[in-house]
Amino acid sequence: MAIAKPVRALAIVLSLVFFYFVFQIFRSPPSLEAPGGKSDVTTRDPNLDPTEEPEGPLWRADDYAPDNPNSPRINATLLSLVRNSELGGMIQSMRDLERTWNSKFNYPWTFFNDEPFTEEFKKRTQAETKAKCFYEIIPDDHWAVPSWINNDLFQESAEILKEQDVQYSNLMSYHQMCRWNSGMFYKHPALANTRYYWRIEPKVHFFCDVDYDVFRYMEDHNKTYGFTINLYDSPQSIPTLWPETMKFLAAHPEYIHGNNAMDWLKDSARRPEHNEKANGYSTCHFWSNFEIADMDFWRSQAYEDYFNHLDRAGGFFYERWGDAPVHSIALGLFEDASKIHWFRDIGYQHIPYFNCPNSPKCKGCVTGRFTDGDAFLFKEDCRPNWFKYVGME
After folding, report:
1. Is residue 92 a contact partner of residue 61, using CB atoms and an 8 Å limit?
2. How does pLDDT run across 341-362, given as a tens digit for each residue?
3. How far is residue 188's CA from residue 163's CA, in Å, rounded to a whole number?
């Protein structure tokens, strides 16, 4: 019996739809491409490739008991700036990191707040770890708005930034936090004898078992800074950060390292509109809610002079200079780029971005996922530029 033409047409359409969805499911993994589809750096996300531990001697979880005075632990801490109201989110982050790493190595936790921690906060956070916990109040002179900041000008600037959809621009406490994370935290007396830190924020996730001492790795391999996620910043929030940096470099050319990452900082090919709005800066930065770093770099004369220059310029308040671009620019200019390490084996999420390795040690993280948010967020990934100009080490 002949099939009516309308039925045949419907069958053809349904077949085409079926094959389209099959193609979408089984097509090649997403590529790291420049906006507009231009090929850039690599054809696939390197997180899709099998991920192993870093090369070289690694310290395993032997003799790391919390009460062992002769343990291999070095002078390092897990560090968090957190409010009492963020207790639930902090416990979530602690549970993830203790499960995947710190229960094996028992490094201390150091919590900072601009007001005293409650007894409930202390009791419940200490219950999440066998390691020691320290609860520190930020000194007033580290948190207070500097005397040279004009409050009327701050209010006017905040309104302009708000009109440009710059997040948190009208919250004074957010500006104070960015300044503290940029150039104050490592000056706290509680960290005077501490060299390395791993920054942990509330409501983050860790997905992969890490079976080596990351702080020992940093020390043994002469690394200054470790990151997982590399993003573009909002150029509206930092229009004068790069011009002020250029002023500083004109006065201190001696601080520029011979093996710097200037090309990564200045790239204009991938997102030219960002470079234009930020007056010469690509806006690429290490997302500093995750950072494992050597505080000797922040304590160096080069960084101290740079931070003081920026602080006096007022951009932490009149604009919304964040610690992420400030740290990243300083590292990209003043440090040997080979001392900056991508911890590709550490699965991590801070909404809405991920670092998801291809490893049997990881659970709950989709391999190669960069974001589970809207499609436009994919263009915020600046890892391809880092891989292009520096590499994947």
Report:
1. no
2. 999 999 999 999 999 999 999 9
3. 36
Here the tokens at position 98 are 């203790």
* Distance of alpha carbon 375 from alpha carbon 378, whole angstroms: 6
> Is residue 244 annotated as part of the catalytic site, yes or no?
no
If DSSP codes are grouped into helix, strand and coil, which group holds residue 374? coil
Rounded CA gap, 76 and 94, in Å?
Answer: 16
Range list of β-strands (E), the chain: 76-81, 109-113, 133-137, 196-199, 205-206, 225-227, 230-232, 284-286, 291-294, 340-342, 348-350, 353-355
The arrangement of strands across the sheet holding 205-206 comes to 205-206, 348-350, 353-355
Percentage with pLDDT > 90 across the chain: 88
Name, in order, each residue with C-beta under 8 angstroms of 116's C-beta and a sequence gap of 6 or more.
137
Residue bearing the bigger pLDDT, 31 or 156: 156
Q: CA–CA separation, 350 vs 287, rounded Å?
A: 9
**From the candidates 128, 291, 335, 380, which is the catalytic residue?**
291
In tens, the pLDDT along 46-76 reads: 999 999 999 989 999 999 999 999 999 999 9
